[in-house]
Amino acid sequence: MGEQPIFSTRAHVFQIDPNTKKNWVPTSKHAVTVSYFYDSTRNVYRIISLDGSKAIINSTITPNMTFTKTSQKFGQWADSRANTVYGLGFSSEHHLSKFAEKFQEFKEAARLAKEKSQEKMELTSTPSQESAGGDLQSPLTPESINGTDDERTPDVTQNSESRAEPTQNALPFSHSSAISKHWEAELATLKGNNAKLTAALLESTANVKQWKQQLAAYQEEAERLHKRVTELECVSSQANAVHTHKTELNQTIQELEETLKEKEEEIERLKQEIDNARELQEQRDSLTQKLQEVEIRNKDLEGQLSDLEQRLEKSQNEQEAFRNNLKTLLEILDGKIFELTELRDNLAKLLECS
């Protein structure tokens, strides 16, 4: 086969909810390889992404397609042939810009290839060779289905879908950046959200009317068969891409192991910090207990000091009373001594007179 990968990158893959046309449904559990392929025999460009052996993106680029950046790390495009809208969440703005540039480049190449094919058909088609030309061109019809998608689908429908897309997808576009970061940071959360969205999809699908279910089943069966054929083609022609995918998976596993080792070291460090914190807590408790004992002893000493102050004050009062009594006694004694002195003087005078 002449189909070869010409550009590859890694991204988280989403598809628009076919029922609500608003919510994004993740189709990959982790970042996968998304590649541009060129088929030289059919002269077409395709975007293909595999999750294991399952093709989660198989979109042929046509001149009517437009890749829209809805945030710094998220972009989308509508595929009318697959009747869905694909969304890609990249790890950086650089990867998104590079993918968008390649999309525009290959879209222009598809337009030129389509114009050349139409010119060649017009030059080689004559009234006498009309039936023969139809026989020669019939094998190209299924191969160039996506190249003539605008001929099979009215322009009014395509334009109306393009105009309605921003309003219908306003909610997922506003959350696309947050979803991308969230899925990059928490793989477990991704699995949980994927299970919830899958359950919601199954619940909503069960409530569709019977005639719409039958029509959707026929379309799904046809699309499944087409995807199965594409998967078989991809598996047989993309050995290098699968090998690269395995290598990238091994690198991712190695990175996860290194991250796990770093986390384990960080856990050990945190355990040591916890042990140190416990020791500090024990020291703090011991100091707190000692402080309480000191406070109790201080209160006892304060009580004893208060008692001593009261006793001192009482003693001082007693001493002051004693001084007052002693002073009174001294005054009385002085009076008595004065009286005795006068008595002695009087007795002396009496003795002299006699």
Automatic annotation (TrEMBL):
<feature type="compositionally biased region" description="Polar residues">
    <location>
        <begin position="138"/>
        <end position="147"/>
    </location>
</feature>
<dbReference type="GO" id="GO:0043197">
    <property type="term" value="C:dendritic spine"/>
</dbReference>
<keyword id="KW-0963">Cytoplasm</keyword>
<feature type="domain" description="WH1">
    <location>
        <begin position="1"/>
        <end position="110"/>
    </location>
</feature>
<feature type="compositionally biased region" description="Polar residues">
    <location>
        <begin position="155"/>
        <end position="173"/>
    </location>
</feature>
<dbReference type="InterPro" id="IPR044100">
    <property type="entry name" value="Homer_EVH1"/>
</dbReference>
<dbReference type="InterPro" id="IPR000697">
    <property type="entry name" value="WH1/EVH1_dom"/>
</dbReference>
<protein>
    <recommendedName>
        <fullName>Homer protein homolog 1</fullName>
    </recommendedName>
</protein>
<dbReference type="GO" id="GO:0005829">
    <property type="term" value="C:cytosol"/>
</dbReference>
<feature type="coiled-coil region">
    <location>
        <begin position="201"/>
        <end position="332"/>
    </location>
</feature>
<keyword id="KW-0966">Cell projection</keyword>
<feature type="region of interest" description="Disordered">
    <location>
        <begin position="114"/>
        <end position="173"/>
    </location>
</feature>
<dbReference type="Pfam" id="PF00568">
    <property type="entry name" value="WH1"/>
</dbReference>
<dbReference type="GO" id="GO:0007216">
    <property type="term" value="P:G protein-coupled glutamate receptor signaling pathway"/>
</dbReference>
<keyword id="KW-0007">Acetylation</keyword>
<dbReference type="GO" id="GO:0035256">
    <property type="term" value="F:G protein-coupled glutamate receptor binding"/>
</dbReference>
<keyword id="KW-0175">Coiled coil</keyword>
<keyword id="KW-0597">Phosphoprotein</keyword>
<comment type="similarity">
    <text>Belongs to the Homer family.</text>
</comment>
<dbReference type="GO" id="GO:0014069">
    <property type="term" value="C:postsynaptic density"/>
</dbReference>
<dbReference type="InterPro" id="IPR045027">
    <property type="entry name" value="Homer"/>
</dbReference>
<dbReference type="InterPro" id="IPR011993">
    <property type="entry name" value="PH-like_dom_sf"/>
</dbReference>
<keyword id="KW-0770">Synapse</keyword>
